[in-house]
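Shape matters. Shown next:

___
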Amino acid sequence: MARFFRYYALIISALLFHGCANMQPPGGGEVDITPPAVSEVNPPNRMTNFSGNEIELTFSEYVDKRTFKDAIFISPALEKGFDVSWSGKTATITLKEELKQDVTYNLTIGTSVVDLNNSNNMAEAYSYIFSTGDRIDQGVITGKIYDKDPNKLYIFAYLTGDDDDSLLKRKPDFVTQTGPSGEFILSGLPKGKFRVFAVGNSFGDLVYNLNSDRIGIYNRDITLGVNDTLKEKMNFRVTKFDTIPPVLQKGVMTDENHIVLSFNEDLDVGTLKQSGISI
């Protein structure tokens, strides 16, 4: 009888081992293609007489914390900036300075925010507007950037007035980021004259960098007033201005009749002339 039980135990062990060895991971579900979105905000959007220093934003799913912090733009800009803390899907933005009185602020969450599940970008920028006074500035500009990768482009809006103000050498007064479609909305703007640019800000410093950033320039300044609060269809195409001359990096003599010259960038071969080369 003891031999029977030992034999039976060996059979059970072998069957269990075989079953475990052939276990397969559960089949994967559908790939997540749903972009993250802000599902709740506190205090409510477009709040007047704002007197606190914290804003809570809850997302529809877990998002990458680094991309979230890098995608926050506050206009007008804060000198001391802000801190971010998290509790689950909720981010708390703590403003580190006292806000100006009777000013409309625009806190924009750009489309560079991605979810943790599949790195999906937000489909469009989220704009949270609040005022420290009893009214919200009503100015709005909308439009589109036509580009193969508009998701990485920004709209820079500057209030003009001082002729000596070198606009593109400083951060914009108002900023937003485009979505995959290239469309943008910049709201909560005060009355005044604006100069607007589309910028591919490669360094993420919110300052236009010649020779590295692409830029689109609107053909005229726009004015927003009490009875003229909306400017639509501001469309852009971007290009990069290269002001740095090419540099000869290397020369190799391949045989007694040929020298191969290597430059740091592509050249316009139509500009090469024999008279410009001396040996």
Observations:
- The CA atoms of residues 14 and 20 lie 10 Å apart.
